[in-house]
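call fold(seq) -> tokens
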Amino acid sequence: MDTVTIKDIARALNLSTSTVSRALRGSYEINPETKRLVMEYAERLNYRPNPIALSLKGSASRAIGIIVPQIANYFFSQAINGIEAIAYNRGYHVIIFQTHESYDREVLNIQQAVSRRVDGLLISLSSETSDVTHLKELQAQGMPIVLFDRVSADLEATQVVADNFKGAFDATEHLIQAGRRRIAHLTIPPWLSITQERLAGYRAALEKHGIPYDENLVRYGTFGPDEVGPMVDELMALTPRPDAFFTASDRLAAGCLAALQQRKVAIPDDIALIGFTNMNVAELLSPPMSTVVQPAQQIGHVAAERLIDLIERKHRALPIDTVRIPTELIIRESTGPVASKAE
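ret:
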């Protein structure tokens, strides 16, 4: 099949090539109906921009760098899918780096991305990153940066995140409404933005329902491979022990489920369990696990759009802000009501 060009689309729709080109780039100069016609026709013919040809028109590489903690993490793999879909349609290719939760690797990844002449960076911070001076310095040199998921208030950049506060509030309130009162919270390093927002949502739900916040019910993980079991043991040794667990990540949710089952704890009769995750096997677990779903692909879409708009310096590019994408609470068997006690 011959490669479809902008000229082919222009000829078929009786438009100028410049109009088609601007419509494909999402230019504000083109009215929405024309954009829609061009995009639908381009998709129907499987048109794809040629990044190499585009890069020859100027000094831009038509590449964006994506830096994430771990590609194998289901959330990040789905976010990358969303980023790639937008980048591909707008004539960019992506270069993906992973930090493995290391600050030092994050710095090296950024240096690698710059050496490959990327036009901009999409970054989700490592669990070790509390100082973002390296990003401020890069930004001062003119590199467009958009943060997503794990972000920092210390960097003046657009940030695209899930509504972590609302998601955690909804999860905790659901447990309370199911009759739970001793709700443990397993979370990740305290300096991460997502940790702080989810902890705040958890505390707000407790406060709304008149349940005192007990810091003894909160445990912070470090992404270690065998840390969940000891945290569960510590919590189960409390008097009274928890009657529910709300975890702030998919890794913690899966580890908590396994630890409770190994200790012969019945879920949800003895303890309810809910995660904050995009884990694609949650409904296949035994019991199927309730969860707060992060809109990973949508976060990727929005982050990529905002970065490319920033790269192309559009006159009407949106100002720096924080974009919060709604989460969704999915209720399954792991958070059933408290079992009734026989007299």
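The chain has a mean pLDDT of 88.
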